[in-house]
Specification:
- The protein has ten helices and seven strands.
- It is globular and about 45 Å long.
- The protein has helices spanning 3-12, 15-19, 25-32, 52-56, 72-75, 90-96, 113-116, 126-136, 142-151, 184-197, and strands at residues 36-40, 60-64, 81-84, 100-103, 122-123, 157-161, 201-203.
- Keywords: Glycoprotein, Glycosyltransferase, Membrane, Transferase, Transmembrane, Transmembrane helix.
- One of its GO terms (molecular function) is sialyltransferase activity.
- It is found in: Endomembrane system; Membrane.
- This is Glycosyltransferase family 29 (Sialyltransferase).
Amino acid sequence: MNRLRFLAARTLRDEAALQSLSTHQSAVLNDLAGKHVALVGNARALADTSQGALIDAADLVIRINRAPMPQARSHGARTDWLALATRLGAQDRTRIAPGRILWMSPKRKRLDWQTATSPGFYLHPLADYAALKTQLAAPPTTGAMMIDLIARSDAARLDLFGFDFFASLSLSGSRTADQVPHDFSGESEWVHRLISADRRIVRH
């Protein structure tokens, strides 16, 4: 697909054409199998910790959106995958340097050509987004979608860092919980149920 065809598919919401650019979900799940995964959220409270070495020790480090990393001591330095739901500027793209980008947002018009043609690009299916939205009774965050995806894989372990469900707000912006369309209390309860049912998942 060339860039012009991509722009047309994005404008016309041609999901089949956009999905043709994506690695199949089964391949992503296969890449997670057997891995110790660190999923790093953007809670401000993470900056007050010394979790960086633990994060970087994982087989696979996945960060979210603009992936702020104020210091290696708290956040680590590696980014293998980036779960994205927003446009990524050139400076952030260079700073984060992800090996794979996973576009998790249902808002396809935000998807850019550079992201869609990046190595190993993955486009999260709209059906999966809708199913989780129904389960949570609210639009899921990028972090929740990644937790759901990893939990459905055969990953050996999933460590969650920087997930306090907006209690300390986000390092990537100044909005409050009332200004974003997510149910953080509901997501917190959902994650706690997952942790209770799945010993692979640990929240730090």
